[in-house]
Amino acid sequence: MRIIKAALLGLGTVGAGVYEVIRHHQEQLQELVGAEVQVVAVLIQDENKEREVANDVLVTNDIKEILAIPGLEVIFESIVGAEPANRHVDEAIERGCHIITANKEMFAKHGDVLLEKARENDVQIGFEATVAAGVPVIRTIQQQLQLNKIERVQALLNGTSNFILTEMRQKQLPFAEVLKTAQSLGFAEADPTNDVEGIDAFYKIMILSQLIYGEQPEWATVDLKGIASVPEDEIYHSEGRYKHMAELKKVGNHVQASVQPVVIDDQHPLYSVEGVDNAVVLETSLAGTIMIQGPGAGSKPTASAMLEDFIHIFQTNKAAVLN
Ligand SMILES: NC(=O)C1=CN([C@@H]2O[C@H](COP(=O)(O)OP(=O)(O)OC[C@H]3O[C@@H](n4cnc5c(N)ncnc54)[C@H](OP(=O)(O)O)[C@@H]3O)[C@@H](O)[C@H]2O)C=CC1
Ligand SMILES: N[C@@H](CC=O)C(=O)O
Hints:
Strand order of the largest sheet: 3-2-1-4-5-6
Radius of gyration: 20 Å
Oligomer: single chain
Shape: globular
Number of domains: 2
CATH architecture of the largest domain: 2-Layer Sandwich
Family: Belongs to the homoserine dehydrogenase family.
Bound molecules: NADPH dihydro-nicotinamide-adenine-dinucleotide phosphate, ligand LTNE7NMQ
Number of strands: 12
EC number: 1.1.1.3
Strand content: 15-25%
Organism: Lederbergia ruris
Helix content: 40-55%
Pathway: Amino-acid biosynthesis; L-methionine biosynthesis via de novo pathway; L-homoserine from L-aspartate: step 3/3; Amino-acid biosynthesis; L-threonine biosynthesis; L-threonine from L-aspartate: step 3/5
Mean pLDDT: 96
Protein name: Homoserine dehydrogenase
Order of helices and strands: EHHEEHEHEHEHEHHHHEHEEEEH
Structural class: alpha/beta
Low-confidence stretches: none
CATH class of the largest domain: Alpha Beta
CATH superfamily of the largest domain: Dihydrodipicolinate Reductase, domain 2
Distance between the termini: 19 Å
């Protein structure tokens, strides 16, 4: 049977999830893409950490060793921050690898250039996991709303923020305690600043803006606030519910976005979206208002989005070969 050689960049919450899902779904993957999926290498930072990977997997902090592997076909990228992820992905594309990424900071900053480069090199980039983790927002927009105009987006895009707001309100717990729980569950980033300051949701709405309108607003024009700015008392006692809302719309020729905590009442579609769930409300020209909801953070949901991207890429390629 044909073998697809894959490398993982990052073996943290997300990377380890991808590794496990590949290991435990080998038979189904073989049926779906007509090949055995072999993880041959993993890029990490700290060589002294214990890793639960098979002995024949190359574990290294040197990207050159990975990109030199003959026949490497796909990279699952889940490291942190724009660099060096962008450089690694750029080089992997030049070497003819397909890319599947969960790294929203990298993709919000460099996604348009990387997509262009991927087209030139005849490879694909899957980025479903960059927005709302397990919720299939990207492919819904790409494939199911091509004729529709998307007039407005309202979304909860940070699982950590929604989890914290929900737990604080329901259990009257302090912010710091719930944040710790969100970290221990793998929802919050190792450095949770981007989660609680709204920057993580900002990157995600920028990715949606690029996808929907082909452009992003000037970053400096976006109203950006995180949940850390909301006094605890207001979260406990407000009438209505605090939600961390990202909004996007086109006004004339300009794309406008905002990312901020708001109080909504029970008439709002996002009112009942609780815990780590994310949701995206799309106001469309033909289909009306559509809402997609599901787990917005965590190891399995994110790995799920990445593996679905993988299947999509390799099924397309399989069809091309067969035809
Ligand atoms: N956690 C989640 O629910 C989700 C996360 N994401 C995104 O996925 C990415 C990974 O998140 P997560 O798994 O939670 O993060 P973790 O901090 O758990 O893991 C990060 C991994 O990347 C490695 N790494 C970090 N920097 C470098 C570097 N410069 N070179 C090589 N390896 C590096 C780390 O190495 P080492 O093990 O040696 O420390 C670690 O294995 C992030 O971009 C995040 O925003 C997206 C969707 C959901
Ligand atoms: N830290 C992020 C993880 C997923 O993107 C979040 O909480 O949403």
